[in-house]
């Protein structure tokens, strides 16, 4: 984690959460990371003015407040949304994004946390999407 990530973590308040269904939390995390990875691939790691829109539209969790019960439904939703909403629609790109998500999970918690913090910073600058931080990322 870099200095900006540490500062962001210091500014977040500690919340005690009571989670009933951990599986749906992890599946939602896959959905969020997939949308983030898609944007990273499209923008080559340099977020643009459309990055928050891309992430918001591609993630069923963020755009539709969807909760998942099994892994196939997450993967299908991610691929479907990739082929419907963004400017660049490619099944090959969708498969590469899925592989990227697997790689992020294999890198561990710190990499996942970095991705979520970058996503949070993108939403902070947007007019209405800052509310998604309150609901999902804070």
UniProtKB/TrEMBL annotation:
It comes from the Eukaryota. Residues 3-138 form the Shq1 C-terminal domain. One of its GO terms (cellular component) is nucleoplasm. GO terms for molecular function: unfolded protein binding. Transmembrane segments: none annotated. One of its GO terms (biological process) is box H/ACA snoRNP assembly. PANTHER family: PROTEIN SHQ1 HOMOLOG. Belongs to the SHQ1 family. This is Protein SHQ1 homolog. It comes from Adineta steineri. The lineage of its organism: Eukaryota, Metazoa, Spiralia, Gnathifera, Rotifera.
